[in-house]
From TrEMBL:
Organism of origin: Sphingopyxis bauzanensis
GO process terms (BP): carbohydrate catabolic process; cell wall macromolecule catabolic process; peptidoglycan catabolic process
Pfam families: Glyco_hydro_25
Phylogenetic classification of the source organism: Bacteria, Pseudomonadati, Pseudomonadota, Alphaproteobacteria, Sphingomonadales
Protein name listed in UniProt: Glycoside hydrolase
Keyword line: Hydrolase, Membrane, Transmembrane, Transmembrane helix
Amino acid sequence: MATGAIKRKGPASPGGNWRGTIACLLRRIGAAIVLLLLATGLALWWAARWTPDRAIYPTQGVTIDAGNGDVQWGSIKAAGADFAYVMGTDGTRGIDTKFTHNIVAAREAGVQTGAIHRYSLCQLATDQAANFIRHVPRRADALPAVVWLDYDDRCPDRPTRSLLLSELATFLAQIEAHMGKRSLIAPGPAFEFDYQVTKGIARTIWLRRDFFEPDYAAHPWAMWQANNYVRLSGANGTVGWNVLRPQGETP
């Protein structure tokens, strides 16, 4: 037998394989994160620009409040807004700081406007109506006022449905006498689920659901806030984008 024995290779050191596996895993995780960030960015870009097809909904407009800063209404009109609902009063004392400016500037730019009141479950209807009447002028060319119905973290009260409907009817009667026209009601999904306002109050309905047509009310919507993430030149942050159901269309 040869004096020089053949040396057999021992098992590979586990350290090298372990490090390679970890490096490969990290590369895959990094690639997945990059793809996720790209997809998120694309979704946000799309959401900021999407509005319903104007061939289906010819009349479209915006929801604006003080958070949108000093709005350039000429740019808003150029973006395709046929009308604007402007946040106005809130409860018994609240008033959007840009309300008067926005109403005047929008009309000067040729955009028809209407006022929104945020209804509070913690305050009397008559006091809320007084706040609305004090700050929202009656104009024949104004759009019908809107009563925004949502829960508010500042208000823990949850009245019975019968009490809410009674108070809401009082509020509507008073502001409608002031404005000379019937109002719209705009319940959010959770509020409508709990109180079924659209079954108890006979008013035109404005519903809200991003990207998908809403169907959570007792009656079909007349106006739909279809995207609350639209970004427009001429307004800070995001605006709500709304469409009207075409006249004569039945859902």
